[in-house]
Amino acid sequence: MDRDAHLYTFGIGEDYHLQDFLGAHEAVSHGQEGYQFRVWAPNAENIQIIGDFTGWYDFPLQLQRHESGVWEGFSPYAKEGQIYKCLVQRRGGQLIEKIDPFARYLEQRPSTGAILQKTSSKKWKDSLWLGRRKRFGFKSRPVNIYEVHAGSWKTDESGNRYTFKRLKDELIPYLVEMHYTHVEFLPLMAHPLGESWGYQLMGYFAFEHTYGTPEEFQDFVEACHLNNIGVIVDWVPGHFTQNDDALAYFDGSPTFEYEEHHRAHNYGWGALNFDLGKNQVQSFLISSILYWIEHFHVDGIRVDAVTNMLYRDFDEGPWTPNIYGDNRNLEGINFLQKMTKIVKSYHPGVMLIAEESSSQVPITKPVEEGGLGFDYKWNMGWMNDILRFYEEDPIYRKNDFNLVTFSFMYCFKENYILPFSHDEVVHGKKSMMHKMWGDRYNQFAGLRNLYAYQIFHPGKKLLFMGSEFGQFLEWKSHEQLEWQNIEDPLNQKMQFFTSQLNRFYKEHRALWQIDDSYDGIDIIDADNKDETVLTFARQTNKGELLLGIFNMTPVERRDYTVGVPVAGVYEEVLNTELEIYGGTWTRGNSPQKTVKTKWKDYDQTISLTLPALGASIWKVKRRIK
Q1: Is the pTM of this model over 0.90?
Q2: I need a labelling partner for 513 at 20 to 30 A (CA). Which of 74, 234, 269, 320 fits?
Q3: Exactly one of 304, 315, 424, 572 is catalytic; which is it?
């Protein structure tokens, strides 16, 4: 695409590879090799480039303005590896140094200079993975995500964060050992403050220098694919850091943010909201998401804070209704629909996930049906209900049994991911293990029960790092996980249990083949609140069946009888109270043959011993006609 075509499509919001035009690029002008610089700053009085090749302020490179608001200039002195910034003269004459919004390499924070690099093309070796992804998709496949903050999974002996070069050597074998299908990273784009965990972005095309180089992340993704692990990355298109040297009021006027002050400012998060109705901003953001998908071969993007983009009254500050008099952010809705359509047109096999907590706008319905076109939505309602229930003293749980069963009323309203994420183990909320009721033994029993219930419930799965082995302390983003916990036998057995539960999930189609309709689930008994026991079955499209019985109290129930949909011999295939997992049972229940007797709507029953605070999962070993 030539310059005029780029300028035109950028202006109408349809340039989806804008990083190939704006920013700094190798070029030849009048027979001289150098770099071409282009900056969008429509209301600036002047733009210059300063850097190593200009002696910084000594001989700044003067850019020329196009009618489109793009400034352009060429320097034969610019060389690979040199650092530069944009010197913006705002309205009124104020001079300010700004980052290049399209830089792919930035200095390590707190510095913000862009680094000139030649465009490189990796020779990828993951074509087999990409072919399988295209052929099989993910809707009817197992999706069990290990959520990671790259800077605090592990540190080296000196306390330095791992880069992706080292994560490739240690994290990927761990993912394989733990039988996860995907790994998801908190944002990896450049951000000025580590304590933001990456959710206050400044460089939408730049890899966060703290985690190594973009090439190291490419190698990590490739290695994941060679080990049959998908990679998902968080992305934040709703708001950005208000640091003055980044995108904020780039040319002295609202450039990337909304014109209206109260819409531009995100008071709750101390950030600025993108003007999602502006054509140029749409090109910028859609180019960013496609860049991460195409340049890094990621398999999914989790879009953060979608609710903030959907409603004009989401924030703490004042708000004004839209043209229809309600609270919907029409620009945000239209942008998200456009974004998902464009991404799916280029990469239908890539997973689009919305972190969204409301129910007014359908998130995973197709755009053509009035939805936003995402593949999945985090089920925040399920997460809040279930954690509230498991934190409660079991003596009161029968009064709140609806917290466990209510999700069956809406679990197919959207396509869901069931998340136990980083947000649930910080800011005084306590770790997953620490949330559980009782003494240390019962806390681990409750945690095993909870994870088994998450795996058995319809929906894809997500668990934040450290939760798999029952870390007791809350997550700290500036420290590595409490790996020394593994020296404790209970933590060690908890880690082993999670790995075997994950393996069990992958090996049983009934848990993931039909994840979007009631055809894949049979609610057998959701009324036994007095004993606080829940029983339901999952099944495949060929009738293969798993029966799950969940005892939410610390009372062992012998000769527990429950109806089953199929006559035959049932065998227990998972018991969360076995010794090898940290429980007290040396062996599980013996196989049980069904008894022909009426039980609710079922003609057959089995009887078993239900472990205290335990989950017991069964399959049909042999059918009887």
Answers
A1: yes
A2: 234
A3: 304
